[in-house]
Amino acid sequence: MKETVTRTRTASAPTTPVFCTIVPPHILGRLAEHEDPAHHEPARLTLEHDNLHRTRRTGLAATLLAPAEARAGADKPNRTIYDAGHQQNLPGNKVHSETDGPSQDASVNRAHAGLGATFELYLKVYGRKSIDGAGLPLNASVHYGQKYDNAFWDGERMVFGDGDGTLFKDFTIPVDVIGHELTHGVTQYTANLDYQGQSGALNESISDVFGSLIKQYALGQTADRADWLIGADLLAPGVHGQALRSMKAPGTAYDDPKLGKDPQPATMAGYVQTADDNGGVHLNSGIPNHAFYLVASALGGKAWERAGQIWYDVLTGGHLAKTAQFADFARLTVEAAGARFGASGAEHEAVVKAWSTVGVTAK
Fold it and tell me: What is the second-level CATH architecture of the domain 197-357?
């Protein structure tokens, strides 16, 4: 287990929005225009909810970002699951604590396991004690809203919808979705990347990277055995697609009459200029996602050991600016690869080549 110096923000530091969802607005927006009420009604309600919460700038994040001392038992997870009862009042009723046995509710059990899988990767691989580095308790609420088609991190807890049952299944099913959302918390406590434009796309990509690594670690998969999909098993039967995103081949995760075609670019040649979705944070994240996949594939073996370590070093190293662009992140990963593994090593070469392949020039 490697020890890493973790940077925390002070309480006075400006913060990014603390509301981050797994299903991007461009998918929900398309569904909201569908003629079938079974599709457009859940999508419209989900969009209305998400747009309201996405505009928030709360004092909560500033409080959470205050420097924290390690809590007693910080090297063990402290998970609590709540049941929102299909309402939107959080957290809901407490239904499961860390020491409780399995629940009769499968969503509760999956949420508990996913929080644990995330905690385990960060602790055992990177020496990080929970998402804040000091043993922050992990809370989650299940059964949120009516046919709510999303899951989100709100700066304090994970929240899961049950899905509409026709396009999306229960959001507690994919462990990488849980890892993705909790990693927004790790970013919140470290680099605190602005959720706008390229820095926002990096924020989303980092969550995809570690969400995928959490799944690979839990399954014991090497890079060549992993599917590199985000949200596999989330799409309901009958949907033409594998997942929400593909890191291996951005733009190929789905092609469905209802969802549309996956619009993610894999390289800068396809970079999307848009004012929607905070400047396309869920679209252009495909570019750094693909860069990470290329590094991990070139190095082989367990992706969390070398490729993941480089990305983690950059995220927590204290040099990644809140407004970092792709080129800034590329430069820092090149430097981190050299610092940890040697400037003439395979790791350094793989990182340089990956960014060049996706059309990003380190600066």
Answer: Orthogonal Bundle (1.10)
